[in-house]
Amino acid sequence: MGTNVSRLWSWAAHGGSLLSGKDMSGARERGGAYASGVPRPVNDTRTRLLEATYACIARDGLGATSLEDAARSAGVSRATLYRYFPGGRDELLGAVITWETLRFFLRLAEAVADAPDLETLLVDGIVFAHRAIEEHEVLRRILGTEPELLTPQLTVDAPRILNLIRTFFIGRFDGHELREGLPPGDAAEYVARMTLSFISSPGRWDLSDPEQVRALVRSEILAGVMP
Amino acid sequence: MGLALVVPSLTADRRAIAHAEPAHSEPGVVASGKPPSPRVSDSRARVLDAAVRCVARFGVAKTTVEDVAREARLSRATLYRLFPGGRDDIVVTMVEREVAGFFGTLAGRLDGVDDPTERIVVAMTAAADQLVEHRALGFVLAHEPEVLLPHVLFTELDHVLASAGSFFAPYLSGLLEAEDARRVGEWMTRLVLSHVVCPPGAVDDSWPQARANSSRDAVASPFALHPEPLSEDRARWLVQMFIVPGIRALTAASTT
After folding, report:
1. How much is the pTM?
2. In CATH, which superfamily holds the domain spanning B1-102?
């Protein structure tokens, strides 16, 4: 498991705590999350609330999920929910969207953790991400029935997600030779912008075909990055 | 609210692009494909101009036929005569015309630019500028993003990419085969949209601090457009650094 995944994990974990204003030091005491060497969601209350709310959304959709539904699902009182999400239902649903988005990118990072080189990482990553989005049932249902409840939060989160991916690639470029005169931060930002764009919208490319993805990666993504 | 009607207009703009005119020209020609009488099309233009001004002030959801009629200084009856489908008809036609105007303005900016690489720089910069300067678009994104975003994300974005790709491909005909030219058109569009949604200032290491300060704004946070998401310098750098080598790679791949 590369450094990048654990760095990404701390981003996501701290992203979660910063959203709530609470610190995650309790998580270290529990220890269990990293025991097997595979990162799992840290088992703190905020995460449990997000998971329970996600279960409601998976079952009933965003529009039909009330604060009461989430509280019941999590086995807590409304007051408890308000303590963690003072903005109420809107903040809770927004937090769940952000959380699942971060989890998606963590799954993606894990999928490419052992890639031997940058080109393979990008090809495997794009193929994986495209399939994962196509097969994400909750996402597909929401996009089909109530996209207006989802897309604003995704757009608000986009810069943060971009930064997450950029950080991942900065780590990945460490020790790798890039094109002369191209700072790693700039290369990472470019690659992050392109991959984020392709993940949700294939455009003319068939992202289920690894050979097409390889052609795409070699031309549009890496041609200017590699020496 | 007939928002579903907006989707066909965004995806049907191949027709609009084929007739791409600067924003001040006959909207009627673009929308229906057949030229109306000059008087009718002037009046329709007046209504559409008024509609854009209303949306810039109140947004799509709150703009009524009465608002548009008042702004256009025409009667409701006249409005319904010009746009029998009422409010939805006006909104859809307005979007079609704005999209056509967008590409028409781009075409104007590209006129006289002969170097293909420079055309890419000019097109990207002009596109970004137009997007962030469009007051009605800015209002919708800031206050009612749910009206627009479902039509331009995920698979819906593919339609936007295809339209933009088709528009720009002819400008690269000296450099690339049609299919590769369309790919480059899409590529440029991806970068423009990426910078509009994630402008330079937003992508830095201050994320944890920024997020902690705005935790209450999670879903309600409006989406405000950065005044200069893609400067000419930055566009030129992107083109020289990534697109030019990529075009070389695309060309090499196509000829093998």
Report:
1. 0.82
2. Homeodomain-like (1.10.10.60)
